[in-house]
Amino acid sequence: MLSPDRLALPDYEYLAQRHVLTYMEDAVCQLLENKEDISQYGVARFFTEYFNSVCQGTHILFREFSFIQATPHNRASFLRAFWKCFRTVGKNGDLLTMREYHCLLQLLCPDFPLELTQKAARIVLMDDAMDCLMSFSDFLLAFQIQFYYSEFLESVAAIYQDLLAGKNPNTVIVPTSSSGQHRQRPPLGEASVLEGVEASLFSQCLENLCDRHKYSCPPPALVKEVLSNVQRLTFYGFLVALSKHHGINQALGALPDKGDLMHDPAMDEELERLLAQVPGLVNSAPANPEAGCLPFRTPPRVGSPWRPLHHARKVDAESDGSTEETDESET
Amino acid sequence: MIPGKYRSVSGRAANNVNCGLHLVIQTSSLPEKSKVEFKLNKETPSFSGRLLQHDLERNYSSRQGDHIHLASSSMPSFPILQRSSEEKILYSDRLTLERQKLTVCPIIDGEEHLRLLNFQHNFITRIQNISNLQRLIFLDLYDNQIEEISGLSTLRSLRVLLLGKNRIKQISNLENLKSLDVLDLHGNQITKIENVSHLCDLRVLNLARNLLSHVDNLNGLDSLTELNLRHNQITFVRDVDNLPCLQRLFLSFNNISTFESVCCLADSSSLSDITFDGNPIAQESWYKHTILQNMMQLRQLDMKRVTEEERRMASVVAKKEEEKKRESHKQSLLKEKKRLTINNVARKWDLQQHRIPNIAPNQDRKVSDSSQDPSQLHGSTVSAFPEETGSLDSGLTNDLQGLSVTDTHLVEVDGDTLSLYGSGALESLDRNWSVQTAGMVTTVSFTFIEFDEIVQVLPKLKIKFPNSLHLKFKETNLVMLQQFNALAQLRRVDQLTIDPQGNPVVNFTLWKYYVLFRLSHFSMQKINGTEVTQNDMIMAERLFGILAHVASSELPQYRMISILGDARKKQFRYLLETKGKKPGLVNEENNDSKRLVGENTNRAMLNYTTRDFYNERLEEIKEKKKFCKMYMEDLVKEATEINMKNEALQKLWPQMFIELVRDAVIEIRNKNSYMKLCLQQITDQN
């Protein structure tokens, strides 16, 4: 943490890079909006809750799209929340249309734009018949790529179009003369005969893009890995490969591996408990003695920031003394 | 001087034959059921005292008189009749020849004063040889075998002509019988009434037991008082109103089935006696009062006197029928109006949804892409309402209250259903509904109204129609699952019907489960007509249970409060806006929402704000956001400044420290001068 790099940046930029200001602004905004309610239990507690929820990834629930999109952390949290809430839909095996997935997204974020969902669907369906049904995992992975790296993907699309058209965006920056000669070749004839673009060429462009980019992009090494396997590829082919690449998934850190997408034992237990409460249902499932201890279960995954560290209520018990007064005043 | 061989009648044992003198004027034979009087005019005084009524067993009180002699004539087939002069003097004007087994009419000589001639019960086939009897007034040829009316052209004085029970096929050759008073043609084979128009003195016409299929051509019979048409095949009657004197009309045992086929009877003011028994019409339930109502002048119907009570009943029933007809006419008018209004509303809706081009007001039904739903192309919905059968039953007015039918919307209450068409209809919820009407409404149906608009009036609905348990939505633009969240604020919903037309949300695979999940506290019975099973509930919970759990347990406290607070705030806002708010109501709302929160806290988080509200809120927040941004910037600036200063201080501090120490040491070097300086400073201070 105390690396010299940290101090090398000017203050404002440092803050901006960590998106501290975004969260601070949002926190103050929320405070202003709900001051009557929050004044009941204290500003300090509010800030505690707020930043705890930011850590846990629950701060994006039912928030407006502009906030969700604001930081990579928000986006990742949103993806995780979506996975968590609707994993059961996928587990059930239902294949849904793009619109329905969009509907589900809107349940969590009322003003989520349709274009993003459409773009994600295009990746899954390879730009084909947009009314096709998609499986949950396919959609989720594609959506992850599309949403998390949306700006990156836009630039990639632009580059791809340029390459297709024969223009080379890299003529200015020529690392080696040999590759420059390669580029002199008019690729027009090639593009019309073969699909897509040359993988190596594409790869180089993307590398430069990653260097230049100020917003998040996938780890360049992994991108190179994706592109090294093929000779030529189309835009959507590239995106599909990205979405299915588990290394990128892991690097993102929002979702579990593809194989584990349907697994969430904690939530499953919770679900069983809820099902037992459905009125009229004979309680055949034995009451899980561990269910009561759910909040205290330590996660099998170490180091993941996503596991709920405490139940929301428990936070109070561990906060400093200043909030204890408000606890008593509530009862 | 009848030669023995022509005295043919003696063979008949049963009948006491006396064809001579008795002056029985026989009435024509009539069917068993009725007796008919022949009342002749007083202008024929010679018969007035001698009328006797007969039943079928003819009891002849015969008088032995002189015999009639039938002598042969020059023509071989015709016998010549002669009577003794005593008889001629005694009964100079009447001659009875019944049951004489006559096959032809005999020539009657020297009886030019004859006024009554009776040929009953013979076998005569043609009327002949009576042309000379020009004084004849009464001619009876009942029960013979006559096939054609003929030979009567000279009998200008004839008043009564009895031709019953013959084989006559048509009415003809009566031209000269202008004085005819009674014409009896019953029991023949007549198919048509004709050639009687000149009989302006005719009073009784009997055409029973013929082959008539209809009645017309009755003009000219200006004196007719009785017309007997029993036992025919009559299906309709016309021209009766041209008979100014007709009093009695017998139509029993015919084929009349509707009143329209005899409607001319209503126009006949003289009719007082009519029979219809044995006709199909008499079996109808409306028979009696229809006849009585249309023929107020009637005194007897089917041989029974028409009482005042019956007449009154008839008019009452007729009035009721009239009213019913008027009512149903009104209903159909109303229906038509409703249909037109609905069409209008549908068209407006389509315009709104950009489904049909704005320019064409005519029947151009082009389908155009709507920018919002490129994948949901709809045809115009007007075609779906060509004949709105609606929920109208054309019953009495109590069942139906068609209300405010204007061009742009329609509100209708039909028993237990409240139907709203068009967004203007939502305002009708503000009206003062009678408690009874409102209490009966269990189904509310919305058509051609944006769901977002409906959401805003749901609180009103809850209050005004507390028993509404079934909601129906058609063409209401339900596109998101989220919109169902709005229904949670209602008190209770048993059934939900979302018509696929105009509600794209139905195309989603999971919509039903979501509804069941979100509205689980309603314990809904049916969705779109299908019963909700336990499995459905379980599946719904399985699919979305985690969503609820996450929404409730993982949201920070302040968010929960703010979301819930929003919902409550909206309710309060509505309540404040309504006129005539009652404090009790406010508490109820409070309790309701509290109870709701208590029941499913986890689901209460899932709200629906209409797009407009949402955008409004975002707009409101913008100001705050700007402020926050500026505020944070200031803070950051301050912090960075302080940080900079801190860093600068860190850098400069060692140097500063050394300088400070040096200054201090230099100051204290000279003890004395330093002491003086200090004292000076102290005094200066004071």
From TrEMBL, chain A:
Record-linked InterPro entries: CSTPP1
One of the record's GO cellular component terms: microtubule
Keyword set, alphabetical order: Cytoplasm, Cytoskeleton, Microtubule, Phosphoprotein
Subcellular location field: Cytoplasm, Cytoskeleton, Microtubule organizing center, Centrosome, Centriolar satellite
Ranges of compositional bias, category Acidic residues: 318-331
Location of region: Disordered: 299-331
The protein's role, per its UniProt record: Regulator of the tubulin polyglutamylase complex (TPGC) that controls cytoskeletal organization, nuclear shape, and cilium disassembly by balancing microtubule and actin assembly. Regulates the assembly and stability of the TPGC and thereby modulates polyglutamylation of the microtubule, which antagonizes MAP4 binding.
Family assignment from sequence similarity: Belongs to the CSTPP1 family.
Subunit field text: Interacts with PCM1. Interacts with TTLL1, TPGS1, TPGS2 and LRRC49; the interactions link CSTPP1 to the complex TPGC. Binds to alpha-tubulin.
Annotated protein name in UniProt: Centriolar satellite-associated tubulin polyglutamylase complex regulator 1
Organism of origin: Odobenus rosmarus divergens
Species classification: Eukaryota, Metazoa, Chordata, Craniata, Vertebrata
TrEMBL record, chain B:
Protein origin, superkingdom: Eukaryota
Major localization listed first in the record, in broad terms: cytoplasm
Region feature (Disordered): 353-391
Location in or out of the cell: Cytoplasm, Cytoskeleton, Microtubule organizing center, Centrosome, Centriolar satellite
Biased composition, class Polar residues, residue ranges: 369-383
UniProt keyword annotations, A-Z: Coiled coil, Cytoplasm, Cytoskeleton, Leucine-rich repeat, Microtubule, Repeat
Keyword Magnesium on entry: no
Gene3D superfamilies: Ribonuclease Inhibitor
Coiled coil: 306-339
GO CC annotation: centriolar satellite; microtubule
A UniProt-annotated Pfam family: LRR_4
Segment forming the signal sequence: none
Record-linked InterPro entries: Cilia_flagella_integrity, Leu-rich_rpt, Leu-rich_rpt_4, Leu-rich_rpt_typical-subtyp, LRR_dom_sf
PANTHER family: LEUCINE-RICH REPEAT-CONTAINING PROTEIN 49 (PTHR45973:SF8), PROTEIN PHOSPHATASE 1 REGULATORY SUBUNIT SDS22-RELATED (PTHR45973)
Primary role: Subunit of the tubulin polyglutamylase complex (TPGC). The complex mediates cilia and flagella polyglutamylation which is essential for their biogenesis and motility.
Subunit structure, as described in the record: Part of the neuronal tubulin polyglutamylase complex which contains TPGS1, TPGS2, TTLL1, LRRC49 and NICN1. Interacts with PCM1; TTLL1, TPGS1, TPGS2 and LRRC49.
Name of the protein: Leucine-rich repeat-containing protein 49
Organism of provenance: Odobenus rosmarus divergens
Lineage, uppermost ranks: Eukaryota, Metazoa, Chordata, Craniata, Vertebrata
